[in-house]
What does this fold into?
Amino acid sequence: MKKSVIKGFGYYVPEKVVTNDDLAKLMSTNDEWITERTGIKQRHYRKNINDAEETTAYLGLQASKKAIESAGLTAKDIDYIVFATLSPDYYFPGCGVLLQDMLGCDTIGALDVRNQCSGFVYAMSVADAFIKVGQYKNILVVGAEIHSFGLDFTDRGRGVSVIFGDGAGAIVLSASDDNVQGILATNMHSEGQYADELCTKFPGTKYGWSVRLKNEPDAIPDEEIYPHMNGNFVFKHAVTRFPETIHEALEKAGKKVEDLDLLIPHQANKRIAQYVQQQLGLPDEKVMVNIEKYGNTTAASIPIALSEAIEEGRMKRGDLVCLSAFGSGFTWGSVLFEY
It folds into this structure.
């Protein structure tokens, strides 16, 4: 059975930097309030929130080009795409096919993953399964988001809007016969009974949005249009599920927490990362946190952090690394691999 190894990596964020002080001009908040609760100091937004060119697929394209080049491959070498996002260019089709066209790939398959913050972990798990059975050789796994177009920049939405940023990250997973290097374990979980605790309801067929949009556009409440999050509830579940899924991956691979060289959690909230770090007993140098620079980029946060960890020398060949995420759905999961 083949093993999946990370052959290339890359990330991309828009040039526009939005600081906490910038947001304080739009809503009743300040740098101290945001930093204390989230650990975020700034985030990146596309230049114009109504930009029809700097889209989610476009961000994914920039990250993908870097990942493919890093792998020493060309777009023609990619034989499958898995694209994770909650903010696609279109309601349908998904971003995967748009990226296939932008890259100039052959008529390869393109799968879209809609698992929000856990999207990249789910995407890697799916790609790993395809590679293990020998169906594909080089899979492009992408996580990209543009949140800035759909946030409520008023006092009503400040608890959510200060958290999110735009960005993209990508890796190339390739088949290998290496007995050591590669993905060792994956797991994925969900608990849909809590869907309404972290969600955006519009557009969606459940709420009859198409009829209301045509006949009663003013009757659609803001709480359906903008993201809703029960922050304390999400936090309590996240700090429980993160350690569970990490331990599950380690146990499956016959490893222990002490064996980990680096944990790269989804960058949801610095307080969550610190709590999980404490629960696992890991020192600072073994936990990658970069949320202060990018905010929460949901599906893009792990591949951005992974790429930075490699660039900074914090993640080296032979290291045992765990990627872990928790988010809307609720969904959560982990990927454990030797880089």
Remarks:
- The CA atoms of residues 200 and 226 lie 6 Å apart.
